[in-house]
Automatic annotation (TrEMBL), chain A:
This is RagB/SusD domain-containing protein. One of its GO terms (cellular component) is cell outer membrane. Residues 321-532 form the RagB/SusD domain. It is found in: Cell outer membrane. It comes from the Bacteria. It comes from Galbibacter marinus.
UniProtKB/TrEMBL annotation, chain B:
The chain crosses the membrane at residues 21-40. It is found in: Cell outer membrane. Residues 386-869 form the TonB-dependent receptor-like beta-barrel domain. Its main location: membrane. It holds the Pfam family Plug. This is TonB-dependent receptor plug.
């Protein structure tokens, strides 16, 4: 036994001494630091002056979701009375998402409002981060730069908030970059925040309008956002602000920095960056900023040969025939906005197909049923992404905000002058372009009501008078397919009351979208908007 | 005594202590001392006729004996005709032969079924089967699945209870799917750790024909020694080895095989479509009109695939050096045109023994080269082509009147033959691995071993779409090329100290070790378009004009990680009755957060060999009865590098004063708390062998709990910057039963039948999806996706429910006008057109609750027959093909059944929907592998030692109610059971093969 013990002891000694030597050798082999090669980590990043714009850029780029898949355009148009996406031979049910938009039966999983929430807060978050980096001195900027960049970021943040104010209303106001779980605010608070932020930063914003400020928040862009928010103040905050809307519009008009585009079509050209209407554009580029894909959803696969495209569109959305019926004779905007009738092969001139106005049902349309949005120029060789910049805030809208505010405050004639001025470029005969104050106070010319498969009205629904309905029609003709319509319909009380196409109203709560399930799940401070299940 | 000891040493296989001169001396001594006795001679061989060198031949109850030489021959003098010879060799049953008057003996040893003395490979060492205290399975080469197997895993398909191996794809470049004991991780995957000769590798590092045994460590107490990668089990592959003093041999094995599509889906052919036109059906899109031809599109892109595999192994050695060298060639065709792969694998391993065998060294090199065609950019077959073939209008011609590929402007609709013929692509891979190992015995008890491996693989890819490809014809690419390359290199080193000691009834062993591993990956990729000519293919990528126009793409990357571990193990055996094993691994990975880089993984297991107890002495019918229990903790490493660090990316472009510059955006939230997923497992098992081991098997029950399972968690933005974060949040639970049962119903001179059955169950549950830091207001999230145009999630992962639950609308009826009627969770019945996402409910589960297999091997004289049956029970499959194509309203060609009445009532007249009508039971029984072999009798052989010829079939017949092609569908990930419509169909394969040894 002793022998065995001795052997064990000696073996253990050997083992121990060996392990000791080993561990000394190995001590250097326990380093687990990560080596980073093709990435930048936040700890190791020291921004140079050239990085300042790159850091700021991340607050602007989210805006490109406007013309992207299930983006702002779809949110504003699919839910309104002009654009419809029916089931087509190649699908377009997509889990019923377009039908829910049309029927106003969205739930907390609906993509378009969720995308809007996520994207806008992405922009807000980025803006806050830049502001923090400037305050903390992490970015190498001069004092002067610090003031102007901070103002620009706050104005941009207000732009994002103006969008959320419109869609979700009761969203958390986050004015600094931190790690606190955000607390929800009321729609009124958000409205006040947007107004006060814009008014605060406007003096520090640049007045320059040239290539260096193109696509950036200038003083005029900020006034435009402010005017738009004031225009909808009654919806957002319960109290109308027509005079303030006029005042903000006047600041832009009086700046002389902008003018009406000579023709309607060139606003939507592929190369529209020097159009005099652009108060604030979202620049797109086929190569660099390829998110403009809305045309793929509108055009038919066969439009490839019509426009000599290098892509084959998908052919989903088209125009509610009821809207086409409202256009006045002589209004060139009908042709300038919609692709209708025979579609001609770009190379051999043959008729590729013929588009018809009628769309029997949201459940069943063929490819060629329904006129397609054609106001954004499709260049020869266009791909799945267009070069056209999106005129997010354009000068005509400034004029129309002023006109509407005048109209609503008893100055119909003044309003009519502005509207006539806007219309005049779209009518060959100047007399046809003229409108009167009385006309603008008329009811809408729309025949609201749901359509039977043969195109006749089968359920008229609410036929009550729409106050200033004719002005709403003017907005429709001018801004069709520019992601305005939902906001306008709500302001005129149509959105939540009228029947159109296959849609019947679902109640007042629909003027706000539900907060997304994912957002509710991850932030226990959020309550769902009224009228929606959690 | 001394002599028998040395015989035993030969037999142990591990300690090759005899020298040639010792042989001579022993022979001489024996010859001299037995002058007056009768001389006999003979050979010893295995059942295949291969001579056994080193077998011991002893006159029973004496010390008089010899060992066989390289050719299995022996000569011996026996005292009288009454003597009895005892012939033995490890792994074989000992035979006793009365000498009688015979002087020439041909002894054929049968393989030992008892296997208790067999050596089992466990982590960083070996153990006798009898001493094993955890769930470990061993499959040897002779029991492997024969025929055209995809990789090493398919060799043991259906052979190991609880290890599910399936081959859902017929793509010859794709491997198998492996699942062990359910789903233990949400994002960590289900791949087991694969070791080839002790070094982490893949299932295709060595050729299947070059493998000797595969050991599978299943439970946590066994795999805890592998810590971070032990959760999904460890598959230990041991390659064929040479032995010291082995006669040189050359083994050839080879086969050629024919594969066909296992089943086709019935879409409308041209005649059927014309009938529909005649019946007045109107279609849109693809089937809009009759184009006047009759084309079987699937036939146009498929073929009978012929494959061949050849394998050569050289083995041999003297008393100081032995060598194994092998070369393998595989030329495999898939059933689709241009779907094929060619691979060469070579391996050389040299062992050296020096200084009285105290120092043993090994140098090995494994190299392989593989090349396969690509039809997708960098990927083998592009399943989109298969989709185009089945949905295409069968009346369309291949070519238009100008001889170009016939194309039309239909949404996502391209000529599949043109797609294949106008694509040129090739991926070429090279793998290289250098092994060096050394062990030194300080004395009988203490050994130190060191191992170092340098490994690397690289690939280069080229891909080109011509100007006649639809990418140009429709989308103006004007020729598209891409080139890419990836490079991986890694170092692996380990040092272990082994201590073994036996005193009295106690025997202990201890092992301590250190293990270092690092990996570096880097790569480069470029694309271009607008080429002046098709003539360059992808070989002159700079000649495209897309680069100048900003339409070219380019990227590169590099990343690295490290894994370091200290580990130790102690085993204790008392009187061969009570067994204990304890191990601990302390491991660190660079992938984890600053505060959590290191984790500890203990494992402990115990065994009680009941059959060795005194009270069992009279139960002679019990050969083996062992109760085992174990507990172990393992981990799962983070899926990718740098997840704990916050990241910034130069992302999208931004227009700044007329110039486009890149924005700088966060790409990842930092999570310094990122840590190991820990899986804790309890395993209880019973091994038994009864009636001379005619009945044997094992039963295991396990329960495993994963804490802090990693998931990409949605976080609120703000305050977070990026909407997801990788965090240790969820808790998962798996439990199940595994039964292996082997019976030998017949055992005789000419006829033998061995039958083994496996049965395993698994049930899993998502216990929790929240923790203190990340809390969900809802206790579920959605997974899986139908794709357009249905565009909805297929699965829901919910607390308290198992993973794999299908979640959708429950269809119960159809309206007269052909719209599905949906039963809501409240029991209300509404048309599908009025249903919403709120009406969804659980429709089934995609993970089988049980798997079984039944393997039979029968031999009669020189004939042998193996029949393997496999199946899975109690699960559902979402049949995407029916969901998409069993609908007459879609704008593509459809299944014949699209015009059948749904629920016997009405033809469907509704958009494609995800409803329970397409969720089918998947239960199946497959006659999977049947092999008939014939071994030539030894006297018929002149130049060879053995010769065997066999015929084998894989995936022969399937019995199931499932309407799709194959009920063995994808079971990985969090949306198992989705039978995707574009899946490369599985194949049926017939193989003719020969093996011989020179």
């Amino acid at each position: 036994m002793k022998n065995i013990l001795n052997k064990i002891t000696s073996a253990l000694w050997k083992l121990f001494s060996f392990a000791l030597v080993l561990s000394i050798v190995l001590a250097s082999c326990t380093n687990l630091e990560e080596e980073v090669y093709s990435e930048v980590t936040e700890d190791s990043f020291v921004p140079a002056e050239s990085d300042i714009v790159a850091v700021m850029a991340s607050s602007y780029t989210p805006l490109r979701f406007i013309m992207g898949w299930q983006g702002w355009f779809d949110l504003q148009e699919e839910s309104a009375d002009i654009i419809v996406t029916p089931t087509r031979p190649n699908g377009w049910d997509d889990g019923g998402t377009y039908k829910r938009m049309h029927f106003h039966k969205w739930d907390n999983l609906q993509w378009q409002p969720t995308n809007t929430w996520v994207t806008c807060f992405n922009g807000i978050n980025s803006a806050n981060r830049v502001i923090l980096q400037i305050e903390s001195g992490a970015l190498p900027v001069s004092e002067e730069q610090a003031v102007s960049i901070t103002a620009e970021m706050r104005a941009l943040r207000a732009l994002y908030y103006s969008m959320l104010l419109d869609t979700h209303g009761n969203v958390p106001i986050i004015s600094s970059y931190g790690d606190e779980l955000p607390v929800q605010n009321t729609r009124k608070e958000v409205y006040d925040f947007v107004v006060s932020e814009l008014n605060t930063v406007i003096p520090d914003l640049t007045e320059t309008v040239d290539m260096s400020t193109y696509g950036r928040m200038t003083k005029w862009a900020a006034y435009h956002v402010l005017a738009k928010v004031y225009l909808n103040a009654e919806v957002y905050a319960g109290e109308a602000q027509w005079e303030k809307a006029i005042a903000a519009s006047d600041m832009i008009i009086q700046s002389g920095a902008f003018s009406l585009s000579p023709t309607y079509t060139e606003i939507f050209d592929a190369q529209n960056e020097d159009n005099p209407e652009m108060v604030f554009a979202v620049p797109y580029d086929q190569i660099y900023a390829p998110e403009f894909g809305e045309h793929m959803k509108m055009l038919l696969p066969d439009h490839r040969s019509v426009f000599n495209m290098e892509a084959q569109p998908w052919g989903g959305s088209s125009c509610n025939p009821q809207f086409i019926d409202t256009y006045q004779t002589g209004d060139n905007r009908l042709e300038d906005t919609w692709l209708m009738g025979d579609q001609i092969n770009a190379i051999d001139g043959s008729v590729v197909m013929t588009l018809v106005k009628e769309m029997p049902s949201i459940y069943n349309c063929t490819f060629t049923q329904g006129y397609r949005l054609g106001k954004y120029e499709i260049e020869s060789g266009a791909t799945g992404s267009l070069n056209n910049d999106f005129p997010f805030l354009r000068y005509t809208e400034v004029l129309m905000i002023k006109a509407e505010s005048l109209l609503r405050t008893g100055r119909a004639a003044e309003a009519a002058n502005i509207v006539t001025e806007v219309r005049s470029r779209s009518f060959d005969n100047p007399a046809d372009a003229e409108v009167t104050g009385a006309e603008l106070q008329d009811d809408t010319t729309w025949q609201y009501g749901t359509l039977a498969e043969d195109g006749s009205i089968d359920q008229a629904g609410d036929q009550s008078f729409v106050q200033y309905g004719r002005f709403l029609d003017e907005l429709g003709w001018e801004f069709a397919g520019e992601a305005h319509r939902r906001t306008d319909l709500i302001r005129f009380g149509v959105f939540q009351t009228k029947n159109w196409y296959n849609h019947t109203p679902q109640g007042d709560h629909t003027i706000l979208f539900p907060i997304g399930l994912e957002q509710l799940n991850t932030n226990s401070n959020l309550d769902q908007n009224p009228g929606y299940v959690k | 005594m001394k002599q028998t000891n040395s015989f035993k040493d030969i037999g142990s296989g591990e300690y090759y202590t005899l020298y040639k001169w010792l042989f001579l001396v022993v022979f001489l001594l024996m010859s001299f001392t037995s002058m007056a006795q009768t001389g006999i001679q003979g050979t010893v061989s295995d059942p295949d006729g291969i001579p056994i060198a080193g077998a011991s031949v002893i006159v029973k109850n004496t010390s008089n004996g010899v060992v066989t030489d390289f050719d299995g021959k022996f000569q011996l003098d026996v005292p009288s005709t009454n003597a009895v010879l005892t012939v033995s060799y490890i792994g074989f049953e000992t035979q006793e032969i009365p000498v009688g008057t015979q002087t020439n003996f041909n002894v054929v040893l049968k393989e030992d079924l008892q296997e208790l003395d067999e050596v089992v490979v466990i982590g960083y060492g070996t153990q006798k089967r009898a001493d094993v205290t955890s769930a470990v399975s061993t499959v040897k080469a002779e029991d492997f699945v024969k025929g055209n197997v995809k990789d090493a895993a398919q060799l043991i398909q259906g052979k190991v209870a609880g290890l599910t191996i399936s081959a859902p794809s017929g793509d010859p470049t794709e491997g198998t799917q492996i699942k062990l004991r359910g789903v233990s991780s949400l994002t960590g995957g289900t791949s087991p750790l694969v070791l080839v000769d002790g070094v982490p590798a893949s299932l295709s590092t060595v050729a299947p024909e070059d493998i000797e045994t595969i050991d599978v460590l299943k439970d946590g107490s066994a795999t805890a020694i592998y810590g971070t990668r032990g959760t999904n089990g460890v598959i230990i592959i041991t390659t064929k080895k040479g032995n010291y003093n082995e006669r040189p041999t050359i083994e050839y094995s080879g086969y050629s095989s024919l594969s066909t599509i296992s089943e086709k889906m019935d879409f409308l052919d041209a005649d059927q479509l014309r009938e529909k036109y005649a019946e007045g059906y109107e279609f849109v899109g693809a089937n809009l009109q009759d184009f006047g031809h009759s084309t079987d599109w699937l036939d146009e892109i498929t073929r009978d695939a012929i494959s061949q595999v050849h394998n050569l192994i050289f083995r041999g050695g003297n008393d100081a050096t032995n060598i194994t060298a092998s070369i393998n060639y595989r030329d495999l065709e898939g059933i689709f045109l241009k779907s094929e792969t060619e691979k060469y694998t070579g391996r050389v391993s040299v062992n050296h023994a020096m200084f009285d065998n105290k120092l043993k060294t090994n140098i090995a090199v494994i190299a392989s080269e593989q090349v396969f065609n690509t039809l997708g950019d960098g990927t083998s077959f592009d399943p989109y082509i298969y989709r185009q073939a089945i949905i295409r209008n069968p009346t369309e011609p291949l070519y238009d009147s100008n001889g170009n590929w016939f194309e039309r402007d239909v949404y996502f609709y391209d000529n599949p033959v043109g797609y294949i013929q106008e694509t040129i692509g090739e991926n070429r891979y090279r793998n290289l691995r250098f092994d060096f190992s050394m062990s030194y015995d300080f004395n009988d008890d203490l050994t130190i071993k060191g191992l170092y491996t340098r490994k690397g693989n690289s690939n280069i890819r080229g891909f080109y779409r011509t100007k006649k490809h639809v990418s140009t014809v429709k989308y103006g690419q004007d020729g598209f090329a891409s080139r890419g390359t990836d490079d991986y290199r890694g170092n692996y080193g380990q040092i272990t100290l082994d201590y073994d000691k036996k005193f009295g009834k106690h025997s202990i062993s201890a092992m301590a070790g250190y293990n270092y591993e690092d990996n570096v990956n880097e790569g480069f990729w470029a694309t271009n378009r607008r080429f002046p000519t098709d003539g360059f293919d992808y070989n002159n990528i700079g000649s495209g004009q897309g680069l100048q126009l900003g339409e070219a793409g380019m990227s590169s990357y590099k990343n690295s990680d490290k894994l370091i571990a200290f580990f130790g193990r102690v085993t204790y055996n008392f009187d061969d009755r009570y067994l204990l094993l304890a191990s601990l691994r302390h491991e660190g990975s660079s992938r984890f957060g600053k505060d959590n880089k290191w984790g500890s993984f203990p494992g402990i297991s115990a065994g009680w060999r009941i059959d060795q107890e005194d009270f069992m002495e009279n139960a002679t019918w019990v050969d083996n009865l062992k109760l085992r229990a174990g507990y172990g903790v393992t981990g799962i490493n983070a899926g990718s590098n740098y997840q704990s660090l916050s990241g910034l990316t130069y992302g999208d472009y931004f227009l700044n004063n007329g110039n486009w510059i890149r924005e700088l955006v966060p790409s990842r939230n930092a999570n310094p708390n990122l840590a190991w997923e820990k899986k804790k497992e309890v395993n209880v098992g019973l091994d038994f062998g009864l009636l001379n081991n005619r009945i044997s098997g094992s039963v295991d029950y396990y329960q495993r709990t994963t804490d802090g399972a990693l998931f990409n968690y949605s976080v609120p933005t703000p305050p977070y910057f990026y909407p997801t974060i990788s965090a240790n949040v969820a808790e998962l639970k798996n439990s199940g039963l595994e039964i292996l049962f082997t019976v030998v119903p017949f055992e005789g001179e000419n006829f033998n039948w061995t039958s083994n059955m496996t049965y395993s169950t698994n049930s899993n549950e998502v216990v929790s999806l929240s923790n203190d830091q990340f809390q969900l207001t809802n206790d579920f999230f959605y997974q899986g996706y139908t794709g357009e145009p249905i565009q909805i999630e297929t699965h829901r992962v919910k607390e308290g429910e198992p993973i794999g639950n299908f979640y959708g609308l429950k269809s119960v009826d159809i309206s007269d006008d052909g719209v599905f009627m949906i039963e809501t969770p409240d029991g209300e019945i509404i048309p599908a057109t009025e249903s919403s996402a709120d009406d969804r409910q659980v429709l089934g589960n995609g993970l089988p609750k049980a798997y079984f297999s039944w393997n039979n091997s029968v031999s009669y004289k020189n004939w042998d027959l193996n029949v393997n049956l496999r199946g899975a029970l109690d699960y559902q499959i979402l049949n995407f093909s029916r969901m998409f194509y069993e609908n007459p309203t879609v704008s593509y060609n459809v299944l014949d059944t699209a015009f059948d009445k749904v629920y016997g009532k009405a033809v469907l007249n509704d958009v494609q929907r995800y409803v329970s009508h397409y969720v089918e039971d998947g239960d199946f029984l497959k006659i999977d592998n049947v092999t008939l072999g014939y071994t030539l009798p030894k006297d018929a052989l002149k130049f060879t030692n053995s010769f065997r010829i066999y015929l084998s079939g894989l995936n022969l017949a399937t019995f199931t109610k499932y309407k799709g092609i194959d009920p063995e569908v994808n079971r990985n990930g969090l949306s198992p059971g989705n039978d995707e419509r574009d899946k490369y169909p599985s194949t049926r394969t017939f193989t003719l093969g020969i093996n011989f040894t020179l």
